[in-house]
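Researcher: Go.
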Amino acid sequence: MKFNVRKKKVIAVASDGGHWVQLLCLMPFLNKYETVFCSTNPSLSSAFDKKKYFTVTDVSRDSLFILPITVIKALLVLLYIRPQLIVSTGALPGVVFIVLGKVLFGSKTIWVDSIANGNTISVSGRLARKFSDIWVSQWEDLAKESGAEYLGQVI
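Model: Structure:
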């Protein structure tokens, strides 16, 4: 996927923990753009000087009853930022951003499945696949098996 030289608005979103650590490994790429970060832990905002940071409610398949709250918060962030690109390393909050961004705003989307998923694509990754312009596995064999792209590992 090629992007123009002018600064693109990007939302980089990941759940707290390992997903967030992997997202931060993409900083050399993300620093090329006007990037806003979003995660599920409000205390992560202290790591950013001049960059914007938003928090959404964490949701998983074990807590789907709060999915509407995550969707509303994600929609508000998307309306405010209007990104040209959304990048996520997971989990379900990342899927929410990718789906809403693609469907409502026509954003380009990149999903990088977690390095922790070495045997199968994550459930969130399988959901994100239908809405991702670039869909990546960090495991070469799994990428070949699933049809994902393999671009190396971020960790």
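Model: The mean pLDDT is 93.
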